[in-house]
## 1
Amino acid sequence: MDLILKFLFYLSGFIIIWAMIGYPISLKFIGKVYKNRRIKKDYSHQPTVTVMVVAHNEEKVILEKLNNIIELRYPKDKIEFLIASDNSTDRTNEIVRQFIEEHKDQNLRLYEVKERKGKTNAQNEAQKTVVTEYLVMTDANSILDKASIKELMAVFTSDDIAYVTGRLSIINQNSSDVSNAEANYWDSDLAIREIEGRMQSITAGNGALYACRTNDYYDFDPILCHDSAMPTHYTLNGKRAICNHDAVAYEKAGEIVEDEFGRKVRMNRIILKYIIPDIRILNIFKYRWYSYFYFGHRTCRYLLWISHITIFVTSLLLAIDYLFYSIMFFCQFLFYLLALLKFFTKSNNKYLTLVYYYCVTVFAQWVGVYNIITGKAKPFWEKAESTR
């Protein structure tokens, strides 16, 4: 029995350490070894583009978004704007219609989804009306840098590049300890994605800003999201999903823990499926670096929820007979105690905040798993007001 407990302890410990420390460090080393690999750009590549904005009840931000996208620096005769309204019941559609009427010189149109089935379904429906060569997708609460479309198109330099995502920049990093923790997370994750993209393909994108060829668009199940589904889909079909961090989208992070927790729960509505979404990923001889990237960046992170409870329970059971496991159990207990201390005292200590934020992230995975098992996982959700 002890042998099984020890095996589970070390396996879980490896998954946690590799996901949070080992893999990021290994990517930095790989990036230095292959430092000459760069994403090529061709700014003369300016194909026809449709910018799709998906919105559900976004009356607070949709006007700012509309004013933002018509100011994008891209040839006016090659860009169209499509607002896909996911069964909005507030003034979103009214605001869009009025804006279109007042800006007849712009190629703007509204697509109204009749039944709310979530963002991916709205994109699936609206995409069928697109006739341009490329499709850029962005969220209603994301403000795009004026050069963002030009930057995205510039890196579609070969037929094997099927997907390009931009960089999300958090504009309210210093508003709260929660938004600061999220911004720090994004900064570290972007560094990893940059190396993955240079080497082969990224393992996940960013819903604030990304693009694909219209002919390459794939109708995913509405429960899935493009962020996680698209890069893997294209890579497994022999193409590349990359990032160009010079294409920037600005957005607010959640300023209260309830908003960020809710967002992370929504992100984990498909966590069980995406531990290994396709058995082909394990074929390292065919998919090379991507198999390594996915295991470290996705599989291990998606297993944090079960790994933490496993290492906690096994160390507790082994602590009776072994001093080492007693120390390990105490360290974990102290770690979670620090998170509770932050929760109850609302301390601004940055170290307590990091511990608390990490624990919230893992707990959100547990809630996501619970929602999947109980059938509560849905393709749509209520937006976080502090991000608007």
Note: Residues 2-33 form the longest helix (32 residues).
## 2
Amino acid sequence: MNDINKKKILGEERRTFILECLLNANKPLSGSELSKKTHVSRQVIVQDISLLKARNEPIIATSQGYLYLKPQSLQSSFERVIACVHTPDRVIEELTILVDHGITVEDVKVEHPIYGDLTASIMVSNRHEVEQYMNKVFDTKASYLSQLTGGIHLHTIRADSIEKLNAVCLALEKAGILLEE
């Protein structure tokens, strides 16, 4: 399919097209990009993504757009969950320390007293993505999940070596961000 014919792609054909786009993309695709390609509204794309997720397609929504989690891209990478605590004014510092050590910050999690575990995707790997993420936070005037828990939160982080994970934990500890046991 191409954008040139300006014809709406309908139903299941559209969801198949969206899935192919996500599978072939080397970066997250925004709902707006997908809506332009399929000639439907962004809200229709949001609904399609929900239907695809309900079929257990490993699609996540990041601050940069939708991403298909490809299992082969996770090979030879290492993951760790870290506990952090800081005030909202240190979010940029925390994320910058992480990405400057070659880390991908996948998500943030907090334990809410009523709703239990709340998780939000972050998916930042470099300073540009951190800047984009922070711009969206500022533009939407969104609150951080960690504000619900006095600054305590978890991050799932990923790197291509255990050494990078260990080094970033030392850097976060030195900065007073890593939650002490």
Note: The mean pLDDT is 90.
## 3
Amino acid sequence: MAAGEAVAHADGRLRCPWCGTDPLYMAYHDHEWGVPERDSRALFEKLLLDGFQAGLAWITILRKRENFRRAFDGFEPDVIARYDAARVEALMQDAGIVRNRAKIEGAVLSARAYLALQEAGTSFSDLMWEAVGGAPQVNRPRHLSDIPAETPASRALSKRLKGLGFKFCGPTIVYAAMQACGLVDDHLADCHCAHKG
């Protein structure tokens, strides 16, 4: 098998090679990654987590995800938007999350941008899904090397998000969120998830 192709696992299923053999990572690959998500709060959570992941391995964030959910009040934008300097400082002391001040403060600013968008009459879900015309973009690459780090759609969405005041939403982070939320389905053609439905 060529490098970057789907890999056979002990359960007999072929999976994208990036999930390795960690049970948590394999479950994420099988049941979340590439599955269309329409809920605005869930989309917001994934965008923030992808921002926290910048410079780190996704498995690091996945292992800390429940800690993040606890620390960030279930990623409820209306709650996060009210965080003050004392709350940011408390988060900086929380060993269960990624303690990066710029990313924590960015999450607060992104929550405020989310609420401003909502108040203007646009849901975060609608904003995200507009980037792909409202329907999942199914790619079915043959190799990992066929999957881009960013696309024209992620660059356009990144620019729009930044213009609205969202932080840590460069085109690579945005493309990772698009993949995670099923706006884009980049499961390899031989992966068992490519044949669902």
Note: The radius of gyration is 17 Å.
## 4
Amino acid sequence: MEGVLVMIIAQLATSFVAAAGFGVLFNSPKKSLIQAGLIGMLGWILYYMLVDGGMDAVPATVLASMLVAVLSQICARYFRTPIIVFIVSGIIPLVPGGIAYDAMRNFVQNDYFTAVELSAKVMLLSGGIAIGLMFSEVANQIIRKQLKKRMES
């Protein structure tokens, strides 16, 4: 039990640092770095818990990126900051960079079967990120239109 708790704390800390660090790298406003780090951390821990619980990585990525998008929309409105500040930093922990690196390394080493397998996984995970962000935005638009209709009537 103690080992699991240490692993979760390590995942929380490193994902927060990764998201906030990319906020610094992208010159995000200093006042938004904590929020961006928290969004990235929450998105990653959802992904981590889902995969650890037995879910496939692609649907876990879709759900985690949806969470990142929803939290980014909330923070953008509350802190009156462009949503891109939170989405870019928050989605960084979900980007399959390590798998992409392994795919390219296998291409260079002429292990084409493994390289193609990893490349396909990278494409699926990247598509999952895009689908999650898009679905969250579409849902947000639908909800806002429904609320606007109810307010008018």
Note: The chain is about 85% helix and 0% strand.
